Amino acid sequence: GSDSGGGAGIQADLTAMTAHGVFGTSVATATTAQNTLGVEDVNPLPVDHVASQYAAVADDFDLGAVKTGMLATAEIVEAVTESVADADAPLVVDPVMVAATGDRLLSPAAEDAYEDLVAAATLVTPNADEAAVLTGEPVETSADAEAAGRELVALGADAALVKGGHLDGEAVEEGVVVDTLVRAAGAGGGESEPTVDRFETPRVDTDATHGSGCALSSAIAARLARGESVRGAVGAAVEEMTEAVRRGYDVGEGPGAVNPTVLGEE
User: Where are the alpha helices (DSSP H) in the chain?
Assistant: First the structure.
């Protein structure tokens, strides 16, 4: 989706990809009328046009990775799932379902349509609210995040990163964010059970986090395109996101946005 406010969506995706030294192409699924104060209007693009955009890109470019963001409607989710089915590249699914305000962004039909896309994913990257939508169970603690990650892997994803920015519990009191990565059995090197990794990073005291999910998933996709492992890509991207949040943009009258330009810095 395109963010007219510039902080998230395709705008954040391409900035994060450029910062990692890869060339990003784009398939727009919807345009939005939004700013730092909120979303005023969403206009999904015709499904056949979404599909033709992807076909144009895939026919000409050597895809190193594919990353999805806001898909808007059940029909678009289904079209994207069909389009990427034959992609010989890692697939990162960022299931943009719940706004920072807690508002649901998709209809129940569109949420249900995600099941097949999640099953095709190399990595799915929900926040706590989105993980709850995908699994049907509340996700409030790190233990819940692990359980949700295991469920998403059971649904077919190779790996699931349940982001911890919205979690409650001891981590919040200790001033850290705990992101939980669950990899399917065998995905981490032959293990017979899912592998669980937790990444702890300092919690930055700011509400300027618009675009953080987009930037993180794009950073991971860029690293996968460069040949990094899922665990390596996730660990590095999670670590560098702290600085992207810390050096965010103070723009507009509402909460600002993260700064994807600092991603990929050595």
Answer: 9-19, 47-60, 74-84, 108-120, 128-135, 142-154, 170-173, 212-225, 230-246
Host H or E run for residue 256 = none
Measure CA of the first residue to CA of the last residue in the chain; give whole Å. Answer: 29
The CA distances from residue 129 to 146, 162, 167, 168, in Å, are 14, 10, 9, 12
Work out the pLDDT band at 24, boundaries 50, 70, 90.
very high
Question: pTM for this structure?
Answer: 0.95
- Least confident among 69-73, 168-172, 179-183, 196-200: 168-172
Instruction: Give the whole-angstrom CA distance, residue 3 versus residue 6.
Output: 5
d(CA 115, CA 136): 12
Element holding 253 (H helix, E strand): none
User: How far lies 225's CA from each of 20, 63, 121, 204, 228, in Å?
Assistant: 10, 8, 15, 29, 7
Q: What is the pLDDT of residues 193-227, one digit of tens each?
A: 999 999 999 999 999 999 999 999 999 999 999 99
Decide: 222 and 20 in contact? Cβ < 8 Å.
Answer: yes
Q: What does residue 213 show for φ and ψ, rounded to 5 degrees?
A: -65, -40
Phi, psi of 30, deg, nearest 5: -160, 150
